[in-house]
Amino acid sequence: MKENLTINLKNTSGFVSHEEVVALAQQSVRHLDALNAGTGTGNDFLGWLSLPDDILQQLDKIEKTARHLRSVTDTTVVIGIGGSYLGARAVIEALSHSFSPLLKSTHHDIIFAGQNICEDYMADLLEILDGRNYSIIAISKSGTTTEPAIAFRILKDHLEKKIGKPLAADRIIAITDEKRGALRSMAETNGYETFVIPDNVGGRYSVLTPVGLLPIAISGLDIRAIVKGAKAMEELTRRNKNASANPSLLYAAARNLLLQGGKQIEIMVGFTPKLHFMAEWWKQLYGESEGKDGKGIFPASVDMTTDLHSLGQYIQDGQRILFETMVSVKSPAKKLTIPLEKDDSDQLNYIAGKRLSEVNHNAELGTAMAHNDGSVPIINITIPQLDEFYTGQMIYFFEIACAISGYILDVNPFDQPGVEAYKKNMFALLNKPGFEEAAKKIKERLK
Ligand code: PA5
Predict the structure, then answer these.
(1) Is the shortest distance between the CB of 288 and ligand 1 below 6 Å?
(2) Do residues 97 and 33 both lie within one domain?
(3) For residue range 216-236, what is the model confidence (pLDDT) as tens digits?
(4) Same domain for 120 and 249?
(5) Atom of ligand 1 nearest to the CA of 148
């Protein structure tokens, strides 16, 4: 049997006692019960809980489409924002070659668009796509989100001009609501292949639907292993009422107790750049799920050891309102040792012959100790290796812990009312039909 992701709370013990954490975790079993029974807030968005089983029937179709796109194109542009973007990017960046775009071979490039409205980004992308044979995956649950809709309009136009409308239609896939939204109508009018985002799965909980799995499969990764990892984590957490043996209950309880003790900011810390986008995904998951009604822990992230030479100073010595969630990977996939140099001109012979991972591991231990000494509690999460199985475990682990944590905070972890505020202003400023009154008011404010 494979090992599971583990949680270690040793580095929080100077701030909250293990007994307190276990007690709150045990009390939080009621939140797990509410999730399973569908009796908590936001209960129409609980489809993600059983995705490790429910998605199995779609894997053949996802893999078939991925094979098709890989065989007819060399690049796929994945359009989406927020939950329709970050999960796929997190997994692809975690598991792909660090320099994928520079690899020649039979590599298939994945490029992301629609996650900003930057003119230069899009113009640069079009320049690259002029010379590429590419396909497009447009992802939007609502089918109406402005950023991906603009990107899709521009890219569809580019692709249709480049290869003609009928062939473009074969290379455009839409992932959206079953019935509603502009993307659904466009797919039907133009005959695009489609995948459905289930009604009961919110954007940021949708990595294990075609939203995440299709781009991941196109990148060449094994989506079945991801789902297996998620299933193993579901088995460990979803119905496990023994709080001390349920990492999702322990994590949710520990971070809430730290918040109650004045630690308002949680920093996800990784010691490999490969986890950078996993932290971005996690920030969205926790930020959108918990940050409401004047509550929530502010999720931030750093890449170590890079940021030890930047934000490290603040973490060590700034305002004492921080705690860290350190994600460690036990074994790297590759092996590299530091060479011995005869004259030791750089004075590094004391680590000659050591693997880089050993040096990195000691940097990690040293950092944890220093931060702990500087009053920063640390929740340690460890996975044996960074592969498909363990990214699946991480996804399910952080999702279920987030839902429990939201219930501990007494917020609805499945809505995001705050996202609407900027949209209303932007639509009014752009004179979108229907926003005439708001436009008048907002333009007054600009005077
Ligand atoms: O988690 C969420 O629900 C959001 O982040 C959405 O995923 C994001 O706003 C994109 O929405 P849509 O998929 O409707 O384009």
Answers:
(1) yes
(2) no
(3) 999 999 999 999 999 999 999
(4) no
(5) 15
